[in-house]
Amino acid sequence: MFLPDFDYHAPETLAEACDLVRDLGPSAKVLAGGTDLLIKLKHGLVTPTAVISLKALDELKTITHVPGRGVVIGARATHNDLVNSPLLHERFLSVSEAAHKLANNQVRNRGTVGGNLVNAIPSADLPPILIALDAWITLVGSNTSRTVPLHSFFTGPSCCVIDPVDEILTEIVLPDQQTTGSTYLKFALRRSGALSVTGVAVAVTMDGDTIVDSRICLGAVFPVPVRANDAEDLLRGKTWSDELLAEAGEAASCCALPITDIRGTAEYRLDLVRVLTKRALKRAITEGHV
Amino acid sequence: MSETVKQDHAVIGKSVPKIDGREKVTGAARYTADLKFPNMLFGKILTSPFAHARIISIDTSEAEKIPGVRAVITHKDAPTLKYGISPARWDENIFCIDTVKFVGDKVAAVACIDEQTCYKALAAIKVEYEELPAVLDPLHATDEDQPQIHPEFVRNINAEIHQDFGDVEAAFKDAHYVRTDTFVGNRTYQTPIEPHTATSMWDGEKLTVYSSTQSPHYFQYYIAREFGLPMGDVRVLKTYVGGGFGGKLEPTGLEFGGAILAKITGRPVKMFYDRAEMFAHNRGRHRQYMTITSGVDKDGKILGVHADFVMDGGAYTSLGIATAYYAGAMLTLTYEFDNFRFDMLRVYTNLPACGAQRGHGAPQPRYAFEAHLDNIAKDLDIDPMDIRILNARRPNTTTPNEFLVNSCEMKACLEKAREISGWDEKKGNLPKGRGIGVATGSFVSGAGYPIYRTDLPHAAAMIKVGEDGTAATLYTGATDIGQGSDTVLCQMAAEAMGYTYEQMKIVAADTETTPHDFGAYASRQTLMSGAAVKQAGEEVKAQMLEIAAEMLDFPAVDLDIREGKVFSPGNASVTLTFEEVARHFFVNRGPLVGKGSYTPPKLGGKFKGAAVGTSPAYSFAAQVSEVEIDEETGEINVLDVWDVHDCGTVINPALLEAQVHGALFMGLGESIWEEVKFDDKGRILNPNLSEYRIPTAVDMPVVHSALVDSYEPAGPWGVKEVGEGATLPTMGCFRNAIFDAMGVSINSLPLGYEKVWRALKERREEGPAE
Amino acid sequence: METIDDTRKTTAGPKPKRYVIDLTVNGDPRTVVVKGNALLVNVLRDELDLTGTKKGCELGDCGSCTVLLDGIPVDACLVLALEADGCDIVTIEGVAAHGELDRLQATFVDKAAVQCGYCTPGMILSAKALLTKNPHPTEPEIRAAIAGNLCRCTGYVNIVKAIAAAAEIETAATESGEAR
User: Fold this and answer.
1) Which one of C40, C64, C94 terminates a domain?
2) Residue B68 contacts residue B112 (beta carbons within 8 Å)
3) Is the CB of C102 inside 8 Å of chain A's CB atoms?
4) What are the residues whose beta carbons fall under 8 Å from the beta carbon of B538, sequence distance 6 or more?
5) Cα–Cα distance between B258 and B434 in angstroms, integer?
6) What does the pLDDT average to over A252-264?
7) Complex ipTM over 0.90
8) How far is C74 from chain A (nearest CA, A)?
9) Staple B186 to which of A40, B689, B700, B749, CB 3.0 to 4.6 Å?
């Protein structure tokens, strides 16, 4: 296997990077961890003549809590940076756990959160839990900066709202919130190095046994990560019980529109949504952010 | 065998470290792809994008113009003699002439100054195809309206087997109970972590090929045949090989194409497959459709068995004729019955050709039979362990297809498995969702006959003792592909010579410097290569004793050598070191050399195909597994596996146990996860290691392995095989554990989470039984 | 990183740019000239002749090309050489010091954790990174650390044993065989 020839740029500042993205236009690709981009290059799926590496932008690597904003995750943070972040362990262990379910250790050491999001594959493991936790992202262009709720970031398989000839995803923000529990359950056909057949993330806000609110996000069962609004509506304000969660599972599978592929049939995936939703809810309700 | 005999060994029976361990852990070990030669070029093969198509034209002119491209070749540059590994059907060309027969079939090749230029050159070769209808469903390959893949093989029948032993119909008539079940196997791949590489170079009319091969001999034989060269002008050798498992047994386009490119350019050419190409070219395990009918008496004693199979051979024969025979032949080994019929159709399809993979043809039928036997046991309300013990083969028996079985501790294996797994406490008493299953397996310790007809010995060895006796070098054609034969054979050499393992060196698997050996397949080397090594070692020892007797002026018959010391068992004052004697020998008589060779006895019956499955000795194994099933998702959680093996005398316990782990691991992968899938154009959908899922470290359960005492009279020191036998029971064992846990039968491999989920769903929808 | 400006044109169009990068490989300072598309695995194997780093899949699935990049295990097939500019790299050739096997290398040999040996370099480097960070891992931690290193020979049983032995911990895997 080989990579096509390209020029390599490693801008020293974000502004410089944004200018390069704008100036080089569609012939350039932004390189973060490379675990997706290099594979696409090897398969000939993209053939840029220039690669803009974010390698030098260390400011995009931090995970910090900013009062008033929430937990701010730099887009260049690797999956293992999430796995090992004491801040996330303390506030949203579910995000660390979701990151740990992704690929394998070596890939987690290179692959970045930003790359995972921009790559926008429907079975990605991070979007469901980040959406369940109401995350939003910042896109910076040469002259612009905008924030986008993550749930409206994805527009289709491998498609998102980022302007590829002007913008760079710089950060993911998990806002301070009332949620009392969250978790991501991944169903895959091997325990490591396998894409998810179905993934379900939930975040719940409990008041005693009452479900004040919940967010349920389904992965790999729709062209984009999708909220299970029907299930959320059904749960709102109710006292939780196994029966109620089972009903929510049924409702969630009505929100999915999976395809049949090499990893599983649509029929199987729908039923997995049901089972995983029910289990994820119980876990988040009874165990907190896990 | 008794403990006292075991203790008598000085070198064998000990877990000495691997002779190549240090090189491998330091990264010093060079595999074929690591070798560099001055002026070396890189080569790649252009393959067919269609499952079945006529080649209208090939235009290489644009490719030839690219800077750095040194040669572009097609069938016009290659010998057109058809080849294959199975001489029964030579049906493959180095490059396709008129038609391509599967996605990946070889069309052209290039040699370039670097890898990147190779891909540019391949993309610049223009091939015009006329796409033809393709045969993709093996069950319909023989239909009248199907396209013909090879004109000479009518209705796409590659091989048809009908064997009949005893009287199966009468056995079924007399039976208390007759049952028929149908199962489907999966197409899997050996998936060695090292992709295949070959580097070819010419020195005048002599061709040298470094290859990641399991058998330098077969490569040499077929390469020489293809190019019309004397075998002596073809040297095939390997350095380190990163796993084979059957996939590196036959020469490929890399060797044939590389030889042509090296000849044309006058430069060494390194050819290699990437991972995706390994799937198209590695001749994986055949998918089999298996219907088995058995009749049993009221106690569950098997009276007769009929196996009726269809096998998807893919586009070429490869080693598939042997595979087809093995599929039925090996069913008669673990249980005793007198009446057996075997019908097999191996069909051509426009899919990649299949060949030998660990357990060669036998694991899927074994899965089918073990599942079938559990169905019978359930119908008759017999414990699955009991029905196996009742039917277990005994030593010194003959199978209906005329295999002589000497040592056989099948019953002891089952009893020990029952004990160490806690079978009796667990069976029927496990919590909901958990189950326990048992299955057996048996495999050859080397094939009774070579792949092509020849009277060459199966193995030969030579030992040269250094002039001062401080080292001895074993020269063997035996091929270490990771299983540890270099280590085990050096232990055997040292044992036979009365020497130490630590002083042994080895030169192996080089057709020019080492004596002939057929290589690593059919689990043959410990017994067959070992027998030759033992003879060579004994010849050294005899010469040593003779000269030591002269030196000591003491009768040779009263002397012995052990661990480098010459001594008299009856007289402690008589002693010399090995070094002293060896040096004296060299000074007075010249090089101290021992040689040995091994040819198995004439084996097997006279019926058609009688040779396949014959062996001097058979290993036996029983496995028990415990699984936990997620009732809602179908997820299979393998908790524990117990393997009990009868593999004769053990040369190196640590390496033997490691073989069990590896064989079981491969069986586990094939049982639950591994399968290549195709689209409706015959293209592999998952030619990579993320979607072709071999188990990772977090998927592998705890493995308990145990042995039963056994001594095989046909093997040196009583040895027999282990490397493939432990793959055989695994698939049936897991199916049976799932059957026990959930009461549903998964009738196709891989057992798969969705299949379990679906079976449970269908049962729920059918409503409660009875 | 310095760029070599080479404006010569070839028949195939402008020549791709060349870049000069500095790597510290197993303690040795190395300066290499690469194209933008050069992969770290190929620079190690082809330019520096460190062929202990293997290629098994080239897609980050098998871990045969695992090296330590500033102490962290990565697949060298998914790292551009330019991305490693200025970094410290350890390959399998740098694990043994002064001809003495590292403890992990010794336990891999002792525990029969090596069969064909092709996955071994990557496996040892993954284990090395684990033990540096976590000297006494649990068995599940060991398994998780090497889950990105595929082995087709051993079933990982003896590999887990070897890493456990190097870390001096007891594991379920070390019990296998004791049923005998």
Assistant:
1) C94
2) yes
3) no
4) B496, B497, B594, B596
5) 53
6) 96
7) yes
8) 4
9) B749
Q: Chain C: nearest CA to A168, how far in angstroms? A: 19
Of the candidates B647, B667, B672, the residue with the CA atom closest to the CA atom of residue B657: B647
Q: Which domain holds residue B520?
A: 3-29+458-598
Chain B residue with the nearest C-alpha to that of C114: B21
Q: Is the distance from CB of B365 to CB of B331 less than 8 angstroms?
A: yes
Residue B52 above 50 pLDDT?
yes
C37 touches chain A (CB under 8 A): yes
Which of C94, C115, C131 is where one domain is finished? C94
For residue B150, which of B102, B106, B103, B95 has the smallest C-alpha distance?
B102
- Residue B167 domain flag: no
Ramachandran bin of B272, using left for φ above 0, alpha for ψ from -120 to 50, beta for the remaining angles:
beta
Residues B530, B587, single domain; the answer is yes
CB atoms A103 and C37 under 8 Å:
no
Chain A, 132 to 151: residues with Cβ < 8 Å from chain C are none
Please choose, from the candidates A187, A70, A40, A64, the residue with its C-alpha nearest in 3D space to the C-alpha of residue A128: A187
Alpha helices in A187-241 (DSSP H): 229-235
Q: What is the DSSP string of C79-117?
A: SBGGGGTT-EEE-GGGTSBTTBPPHHHHHHHHTT--SS-
**pLDDT tens-digit series, residues B223-250:** 999 999 999 999 999 999 999 999 999 9
DSSP labels, A155-183: EETTEES--TTT-EEEEEEE------EEE
Chain B residue numbers with beta carbons less than 8 Å from the beta carbon of A195 are 690
Q: Closest chain C residue to A5 measured between Cα atoms?
A: C37
3-state helix vs strand vs coil in chain C, percent to 5:
35, 20, 45
Which are the contacts of A189, defined by CB distance < 8 A and separation ≥ 6? A197, A263, A264, B673, B693, B753
Region for C120 from its dihedrals, namely left if φ exceeds 0, alpha if ψ lies in -120 to 50, beta otherwise: alpha
Interface contact flag, A38 C80, Cβ < 8 Å: yes
pLDDT for position B341: 98
Closest by CA position to A75, among listed A120, A118, A29 = A118
B472, pLDDT greater than 70: yes
Residue C8 sits in the same domain as residue C60: yes
Structure tokens at B374: 């559990």
